[in-house]
Amino acid sequence: MSYKKNDTVKLTITDLGTSGEGIGRVDGYTLFVKDALIGDEIEAMIIKAKKNYGYGRLMKILKASPARIEAKCPVARQCGGCQIQQMNYEAQLDFKRSLVGGNLERIGGFTGDSKLEVLPVIGMESEFNYRNKAQYPVGLNKEGKIVMGFYAGRTHSIIDNQDCLIGAKENVYILQKVKEWMEENAISAYDETKHKGLVRHVLIRTGFTTGQIMVCLVINGNGLKAEQADKLNEKLLSIDFSKLKTSAASRFNDLESEELKKDLKAKGDGVARITSIMLNLNKKDTNVILGEECKTLYGSSYIEDFIADIKFQISPLSFFQVNPIQTKKLYSKALEFAGLTGGEVVWDMYCGIGTISLFLAKKAKEVYGVEIVPQAIEDAKNNAKINAITNSNFMVGKAEEVVPEIYGKDGDASAKHPDVVVVDPPRKGCDEALLNTLVLMAPKRIVYVSCDSATLSRDLKFLCEKGFKVEKVQPVDMFPHTVHVENVVLLTRVN
Ligand code: SAH
């Protein structure tokens, strides 16, 4: 049976797709329905019909799934940021676990006797306000009033909402002050269609451990007049976070070293406050949020934060994990899987700013990190320096080129045959040239950190055909309310 646009059908949702959309069937016809959950009995209107499948709009819930809850955020459905807020958190974690299991079976071929156990997903105790970085677009609504919030669905129309529930609690107060400053000083908002107006985005980065907050305005211009800048600084620095709900510095007591805590406290850390006000200049007519140049209006050009007791300096352009609480759990698992005793040589492929490398360096003899972005390697070297870590080495280049080259040359045998290799590739997974070299390097253990369980499954299949065995698959929920799930996998060498 086939259907056409505007038909209304009743169906039960039996599955969720990779974007969190509900999937159900009516007479063999498959329908994808955004916002519907497994177990929902719904009425949907077909908005796009193909021969064997179509897309429906959720019109009515006839019987709600037991997992269905009211989304906490009033704009969850319009906003593209969260996809599954209407699912209770436990069900979200179960869903992510089965997503990983499904990919390991279908793509990795781990079925029957070789079926892998996926451990329960490590979730958050409190699954809101977890992001330490937020970028709010700024614009004008139809009435010409300044709006800032998020883009609706797949469009570029801005919905005015300053209180994103997965962002830091401080953001709403900061955005309100920026808005006031713009209104009081006749500062224009950027208009994308005309490529005119000044303020494009407000970027806020928050050190959850230190309490340091950076506010960075992305502008379509070269700077602000001195008087405008002074007024902005004054406005932002007038916020008294001690009287408000805050996310920043809520992890201060998680630092392990008492001495470190004492030092940090002496310089003001451990309480929420704005320590950096910046401008980022972006005069290009594109969708890319940040330009290359930054100017400091107040304080430092970076904020500091910690993962475990390792300090990182974060500038507007730096890459840094956005959920520091779960990152610590993820890296602790990676460290546990690496099984370090102090004498090991470790490679960290796709190392970014060296987060995992430095985390492991404290327990290893020598660590080698490889990363394609030169600025990230600069950051990694700097991070090693400020933490007085001397047994880490960082190289710029494509892992699939740098590593085979080092392996092919005469040189340090311990570097060529490390005890442990960690890989943490982007979504597309590892290049086969790298995987082939890993097989030759023959480490005792490979720790595979992955943000895409489909490519992870493909790569695990490859490694298992070449002498490795999967010991553990541990998903970690880095992004509650979205369909993303991170995994850390331990492989050991069998021959
Ligand atoms: N391990 C880091 C970053 C992981 S994200 C952390 O936890 O913070 C993946 C990283 O791989 C990014 O920094 C990206 O720039 C880098 N990358 C992408 N392709 C690469 C390649 N071919 N070789 C090396 N690094 C690459």
UniProtKB/TrEMBL annotation:
Binding locations of S-adenosyl-L-methionine: 321, 350, 371, 424
Annotated catalytic residues: 451
Molecular function terms, GO-annotated: rRNA (uridine-C5-)-methyltransferase activity
Pfam families named in the record: TRAM, tRNA_U5-meth_tr
Keywords: Methyltransferase, S-adenosyl-L-methionine, Transferase
Location of the TRAM domain: 2-60
Gene3D superfamilies referenced in this protein's UniProt entry, alphabetically: 2.40.50.1070, Nucleic acid-binding proteins (2.40.50.140), Vaccinia Virus protein VP39 (3.40.50.150)
Gene Ontology terms describing biological process: rRNA base methylation
Key word Transferase present: yes
Record flagged with keyword Transferase: yes
Record InterPro entries: MeTrfase_TrmA_AS (IPR030390), MeTrfase_TrmA_CS (IPR030391), NA-bd_OB-fold (IPR012340), SAM-dependent_MTases_sf (IPR029063), TRAM_dom (IPR002792), U5_MeTrfase_fam (IPR010280)
Superkingdom per UniProt: Bacteria
Family: Belongs to the class I-like SAM-binding methyltransferase superfamily. RNA M5U methyltransferase family.
Identification of the protein by name: 23S rRNA m(5)U-1939 methyltransferase
Lineage: Bacteria, Bacillati, Bacillota, Clostridia, Lachnospirales
